[in-house]
From TrEMBL:
This is Kinesin-like protein. One of its GO terms (cellular component) is phragmoplast. It comes from Solanum tuberosum. One of its GO terms (molecular function) is microtubule binding. InterPro entries: Kinesin-like_fam, Kinesin_motor_CS, Kinesin_motor_dom, Kinesin_motor_dom_sf, P-loop_NTPase. Its main location: cytoplasm.
Amino acid sequence: MGAIGGEELKKWEKMQGAPLGSEEKILVLVRLRPLSEKEISRNEVSDWECINETSILYRNSLQERSGLPTAYTFDRVYRGDCSTREVYEGGTKDIALSVVSGINSTIFAYGQTSSGKTYTMNGITEFTVADIYDYMQKHEERAFVLKFSAMEIYNEVVRDLLSSDSSPLRLLDDPEKGTIIEKLTEETLRDWDHLKDLLSVCEAQRQIGETYLNENSSRSHQILRLTIESSAREFIGKDNKTTLSASVNFVDLAGSERASQSLSVGQRLKEGCHINRSLLTLGTVIRKLSKGRHGHVNYRDSKLTRILQPALGGNARTGIICTLSPARSHVEQSRNTLLFACCAKEVTTNAQVNVVMSDKALVKHLQKELARLESELKTPTTTCDHVVLLRKKDQQIEKASFLS
């Protein structure tokens, strides 16, 4: 990742004549964990099997209700004996590391409680950050700034995981940045060890609790955000400096659960209700997006979907890891997870390179763009839409005025 200067700037300017961004489907992976010790002690039977690298099969077809599929296909599926490193290398690495090229990315884990989401996301986060630091060391010609923030959504309240103050944080709408979290702590990282210390703080602050299904059940949705800014060292301090700025989100969702299975009462039951309600909203948003961007999408119905809006249908590359328990007692929950995954793989995002240009560089670029548009207007062709060109010119002028 680096500033777009010299030849890179010329290439970037040429891209402006083409549609910005790159549309692609959300990457959907399924990870099937082994039977847990508790499930083995109850003589549970494993009903799910990964039959190849992309398909998972429900084996108990004799008891299957008619009309429901028994096999599901995704970008990749991983058996219980696959390591988190394999999941990272074979699936999420390419998306997560898009951040070093100025492209926003998000990786999140979805699934029922006790299915392995936190275990998976801890590994994915560690591998990604290690690769980012390795990349930085190999590109000394570029200056990097890394910033880290962390939050959790607990009972529909957003909390700063890097602050001892547990006061709720407000969500605000910014015309340029979208939804932002007011007063969220953002630490500029010194090194890898500094980030490890901050991750330990997050782990200690996050809401967890014991349920029948999991002794250390996550009772909140956690979002860790790493922002990377970079500039070519040769342009630092100069008027024509341009910078790439992007963020990668690591999202560990709380698990869906049934009170009858988790045996939740009191505070645990209340937490489960909030968790299920926000996951229901997430599922509704995913279903609507999977059918195309038509009509209103209710992102604002929960804090989770409001914060994750860019990752679900906006300017980001996104990967979803759906985790499953193979046990027969969890078959309905596992099927619901797979149905969510089926919808998610039909959702399209439109990731763009995020360039922050200095005033001088921006003015120079806009002058060239306006000159090109004026030239097209003076040389009309049968395919030239004057109205579109004039509107584009006006937008360029408005953007220049806003940024100046």
